[in-house]
Amino acid sequence: MTSTHPLTAARTPARRREVLISGASIAGPALAFWLNRYGYAVTVVEKAAALRSGGYPVDVRGTALEVVRRMGILPQLRDAHVDLRRLTFLDADGGTVASVDPHAVAGSVAGQDLEVRRGDLTEALYGAVRDDVEFLFDDCVETLDQSGHGVDVTFRGGGRRTFDMVFGADGLHSRTRESLFGPEEQFHRYLGYCFAGFTLRNTFGLSHEVMMWNTPGRAAALYAVGDSDEVHALLTFAQPEAPDSFGAFRDPRAQRDLVAATFADAGWEVPGMLAALRDADDLFTDVVSQIRMPRWSSGRVALLGDAAYAPSFLTGQGSSLALVGAYMLAASLADRDAAAGFAAYEHGTRGFVTLNQDQIGEGDAPLFPTTARGLQRRNDMLRGLRAATVPSAEARPAHAALTLPPPRPGQPG
Ligand SMILES: Cc1cc2nc3c(=O)[nH]c(=O)nc-3n(C[C@H](O)[C@H](O)[C@H](O)COP(=O)(O)OP(=O)(O)OC[C@H]3O[C@@H](n4cnc5c(N)ncnc54)[C@H](O)[C@@H]3O)c2cc1C
């Protein structure tokens, strides 16, 4: 511990402030990058044994594009862009309703906005920091104690260390949030849908495209990233109340049964998808929800990304909020202490977060109508898009609603 005696302090060079980040997906490595640039000594702890590769595609749009440009990884991400070319909507019998340009539906900008596998984004972020930052894989925080001068941390692997600050970038079901603010239920906003995602063999001949089958309240999508041998399957269904058996960490068998029962009479390729779901070893299921918190920090600990403000995959903005939040949090701490820095982070970022979270309300996801009338309206809209042959609709203003403060002198960008 550095002495705090004024005379001693005057003679010793300033100690690098030491921080711990929990979670090495998107928000965590992005925050590590910027805090390292601002002079912090950064440790990242990740519960998985290694970086999680592959995964479903995520979007990097609007303000978040500027974050990755300033990090120097934009060219790498452009190379990883999955370049989805077609989005085809099917009716109950598998007949084509409309086949449209994906940008027109997503409100993204062709030639600018990016869609990359989540693992490719994580890989690029990690590559930008791994030589400068300490990574601890296969471990996690057991306890956080802020009663002393810093944050005393014990790790599940047995380690004990003290940090100046700790950050929770550990996702929607954040342990950091729970240990700081209590149970997730208080901050959880259920959006009226559940989903099951998994991969299966691409026996459909799909390439660079999404096929989506709908009936009111049900959607089955096959997502072909490039010409891969595998496709991502996503089964989404409306449920007015969140089912008890559903959600992360719950009973997988009950979840499989609920999905199978919900889609039992479905047409098109859904019976084959249900058969694949039974054997899938990468199945993940959850309720579709947002995290909304009145405060993102407590003492010397702050949250970011899905842990603090998950917007849900229905907005397609989770990765972008994680990247922008990381940039804003680090910039706020560049020359401030924890209390002032966390206040500046919230002040500068909350409006952008709320605007993007508000893109979606309960049970009203445009791609997943829950009534026959709603589905009819959506299909009419899609046919109109096709007729107009527009390559891209207007970008959603919410995606670029925040102008980043400039990086500090000497920073890239
Ligand atoms: C099916 C699906 C589709 C999606 N589609 C899109 C999309 O099209 N566009 C988009 O932008 N976003 C999409 N998202 C959302 C996007 O994946 C998230 O918003 C984004 O990954 C958030 O990043 P994050 O770093 O905050 O959290 P996460 O990516 O959830 O990462 C959390 C990390 O913390 C680790 N961790 C968890 N607990 C602990 C612990 N106790 N200790 C240490 N480490 C821990 C995890 O292993 C993980 O590496 C989708 C999500 C899902 C589920």
From TrEMBL:
<feature type="compositionally biased region" description="Pro residues">
    <location>
        <begin position="404"/>
        <end position="413"/>
    </location>
</feature>
<dbReference type="Pfam" id="PF01494">
    <property type="entry name" value="FAD_binding_3"/>
</dbReference>
<dbReference type="GO" id="GO:0071949">
    <property type="term" value="F:FAD binding"/>
</dbReference>
<dbReference type="InterPro" id="IPR036188">
    <property type="entry name" value="FAD/NAD-bd_sf"/>
</dbReference>
<feature type="domain" description="FAD-binding">
    <location>
        <begin position="18"/>
        <end position="335"/>
    </location>
</feature>
<protein>
    <submittedName>
        <fullName>FAD-dependent oxidoreductase</fullName>
    </submittedName>
</protein>
<dbReference type="InterPro" id="IPR051704">
    <property type="entry name" value="FAD_aromatic-hydroxylase"/>
</dbReference>
<dbReference type="InterPro" id="IPR002938">
    <property type="entry name" value="FAD-bd"/>
</dbReference>
<feature type="region of interest" description="Disordered">
    <location>
        <begin position="391"/>
        <end position="413"/>
    </location>
</feature>
